[in-house]
TrEMBL record:
Name recorded for this polypeptide: GDP-D-mannose 3', 5'-epimerase
SUPFAM superfamilies given in the database record: NAD(P)-binding Rossmann-fold domains
Gene Ontology molecular-function annotations: GDP-mannose 3,5-epimerase activity
Native organism: Methylacidimicrobium tartarophylax
Record keywords: Isomerase, NAD
Keyword Ligase in record: no
EC number of this enzyme: 5.1.3.18
InterPro entries associated with the record: Epimerase_deHydtase, NAD(P)-bd_dom_sf
NAD-dependent epimerase/dehydratase domain sequence ranges: 4-247
Enzyme category, top tier: isomerase
Amino acid sequence: MPEALVCGAGGFIGSHLVRRLKREGFWVRGVDLKFPEFAPTEADDFVQGDLRDQDFCRLVVDRRFTEVYQLAADMGGAGFVFTGEHDADILHNSATINLNMLDACRRRRVKRIFYSSSACIYPAYNQENPENPLCTEESAYPAAPDSEYGWEKLFSEHLYLAFARNYGMEVRVARYHNIFGPEGTWKGGREKAPAALCRKIAQIPEGGEIEVWGDGQQTRSFLYIDECLEASIRLMRSEFPGPVNIGSEEMIRINDLAQMIAQVAGKKISIRHIPGPLGVRGRNSDNRLIREKLGWAPSQPLEKGIALTYAWISEQVARDRGGKQPAA
Ligand code: NAD
């Protein structure tokens, strides 16, 4: 039976990845500071602990793992990354995890390791035009990410690629673009735009008003979790090290995303624009490289994933308020 290690298995993408690897017949060890929040883990062995601790990393990494997925990071949406209040923790915690994990994998002679980088590594100067952001893989340089989160990801990309060059490890580096879906953080300050908008719309009555940060004209693309896993696994088992974008090319303005969710919810809404942390003006995945290297790219329409995610978040909202529906 093939065996895999998933670091960050208590988080959104990691917990879904564990489920997917189990379906494929893997024996899976999951590692995280916390257990998954919304459903019991499906890992055969779940080790709770801190990957900033080098001894802990050496304990959980084992030579028998044919696939190691390193997804653990100190992260969140714009409300977490762009306030500046968490910069030191983001840089220190995530970099320490990556330094420790690579060292442990090298010592244990684990060959293949997947690293989840981010579209946040792309330079702010290429993402000022919301209609036409540039996010080809080679446009990462000259580097100018707009957050410390992006700088840490860029540093760690270099770290993984250097371990590949110098120690013969097989690394696979993905740049995720806004992954969303059920069982992701939907409240509390670390949630991303799709989850936050689903929550706000689920919480208001028909004809109600939601708040959106900025003018809502900023563009983004969002990739549904199932396609993120498909792409990650295909990359892991390919001969291409990356870095490569894993994202959707269906770019949408935040105002239009809110209206799409409202339509799925069957509600008319109005939007009030308020100041808030924003990030770049425009961002979209460029899937030419993934298509060329893997012969595959995500293609599911955004609305399909939004419908599944809204259904799950509105259930959480209803459960939170004790099953009561918003007043009409
Ligand atoms: P998440 O926050 O849900 O999962 C990350 C997990 O890492 C959490 O469960 C957290 O407890 C764990 N973790 C943090 N510090 C740890 C430590 N010291 N020791 C052990 N575990 C620790 O995030 P996610 O959305 O599942 O993202 C997974 C990865 O993908 C992250 O590396 C993230 O930066 C990257 N990524 C995600 C997105 C996205 O849209 N979700 C976009 C770009 C990149």
